[in-house]
Structures are given as C-alpha cells and as structure tokens.
Amino acid sequence: MTNIVIYSTKPMSELQAKLMDIDEAEVKTVSIEQMKEYAVLNPSLMIVENIDIAKDALMTNKFPCPILFFGPTRKDVIVRAEGYDFIKDPNETDELLVRAKALLKIKEYKDKIEKVSTTDDLTGLHNRKYLQERLEEEISRSRRYGTKLSCILFDIDFFKVVNDMYGYEWGDILLRNIANKLNAMVRKEDILTRYGDEEFLLVLPNTSEDNAFLFGERFRREVEKMEFIPAGEDEAHRVTISGGISTYPCMKDVDEDANTVIRYAEHALYNAKHRGKNKIIQFSQMNLEM
C-alpha cells in the first residue's frame, strides 16, 4: 500500500482528493507539528505545504522517504530525506501527480535495492549485512531498557554428507526447507538470517535464555521429524540440527557488542557439535556441563 501523508496547516488539504488518482494510494492529512512522529504513519511520500513551519522538524530528523514541498525551490533549508522536490502551483493537478509519482518511484527503487542488498538469494532470509545492523540496534535497546536479548545459532548436522551423496541441488533444497520451517515459527519482531553455508542465526528480542532454549529445542525436534527424501531414494535421509544460545548481557563487567554475542553463540554451537550433535547448548551452561 502506498501511504501518502500531507502535512498541512489545514484540517483537510484540498490535495487529498487529487492524489487519490495514484493507484493503490492511501492519502492522509495531518498537522505539520506531527512531522516529528512521521514513523507512526510510515509514509511512502510526505507532502509539506509550508516549509518554513516545518524547518525545525527538517533540521532534526532524517526521513526514510521522499518529500514534496510547495513553493519555489529553496536552498536555505536543509533536507535529509530519500529525495525531495518542489512544486510552485499545487493546483496544477497533472504536474502534481507527475512529481508525486516520480518521488514514489524513487522510493520504490531504493526499497528494492535495499532488499536485494540485505537478502540471501537462496533462502529469501536476511543476510549478515542486515543482521549486523539490526543486532547492534537490538543490543542498544536491550541495554537501555534492561531487557534480555537471546541469539540462537543453528547448524545443520552432516550437511556436507547431503551435498556429497545427492548433489548440491538437493543440499539447496534442504536449506530452503529448513529456512521455511524456521521462518514459520519465529515472531514478527524476531530477526532471522542465513549466517553461513548451513548456519542460521536467530535473534530473539525480549527473550530469556530459558525461553530461547525452549524455542531451540522445539525447532530441533521439528527438524528431527522432517521427511527429506531426495529423488531416486526409497527412504528419507535423517536430518538433525545443532544450536548454540547466548543471551545478552552474557557476562558481568564485560563490554559486549554484536560480535561478542555472536561469538558466544558460536562457542555454544561448537560445544553442541563436540558432544555428538543434535543438541541445543546454552553458553551460560557450558562450564557446568563440559
């Protein structure tokens, strides 16, 4: 849905009806004072009727969408947005629609580029570039509000055997099957990425280590029940998965960042592999169980 938000000094902008001609566009009019809360409305395009009244918001915010201003081109105003343009006479409906559609197209292209750059081609999950940015954000939020943040690093056991026995095509099919199964189990706020060749990293905000372990065990059992039957085979190839869990904050008096939390999850995963695979190990329990 294309979401166009008009920031106006009037309760109902005359533009609203004109912009309805844009396919699948939802158009709203709000006060200019609400520009600072732009994220609540999640606009695809912002239209600002009075640039002078909006100066303060423009100076203190970086907008993730393009902006169309009324009036002559201004060089004295700093605009941090995905793109912006000016229209002298908004009553010229054809010109208004052309400029609005052009800015929406910019937004569409930039969103596609961003998605391609942060998405794994094979599984459709987020990639490590996306993970690094989001995990730092979530750790910062966890630190600020004193909440728990858990990471689970999953690794398919004996994945090389699948590639060697049935070929890389069937290895890819197994990866997609497991990615789809895991993606169907996560919450909307969770961050799921393909971390390595046969590794998946799941970030669980507001989740304790014990609850992360319950999730990891549930997924491990689901994978164990999978029926993976490559072409030409009479019986299913047994598939299992191992996992390592770390929960921020992991250790007292240690300055921990995204790389630290991932490294702890890797240690726990290696411990699970060392202990025979098909296990979920918590980083905090490693010394007690080794």
What does this structure look like?
This protein is α/β, with parallel strands linked by helices and 290 residues long. Helix 6 packs across helix 7. It is 42% helix and 19% strand.
Query: Helical stretch count?
Result: 10
Q: Which strand-content bin applies to the residues?
A: 15-25%
Specify the helix fraction band. 40-55%
Any idea what the CATH architecture of the largest domain is? 2-Layer Sandwich
The number of E-state strands comes to: 10
Mean pLDDT: 90
Please tell me the total number of domains: 2
Determine the CATH topology of the largest domain.
Answer: Alpha-Beta Plaits
The unreliable regions are: none
Report the top-level CATH class of the largest domain.
Alpha Beta
- Order of adjacent strands in the largest pleated sheet: 2-1-3-4-5
Distance between the termini: 53 Å
Which overall shape is indicated by the principal axes computed on the Cα atoms? Answer: elongated
Give, in order, the helices and strands. Answer: EHEHEHEEHHEHHEEHEHEH
Instruction: Name the CATH superfamily assignment of the largest domain.
Output: Reverse transcriptase/Diguanylate cyclase domain
- Which class of secondary structure composition applies to the elements? alpha/beta
Nearest-angstrom radius of gyration? 25 Å
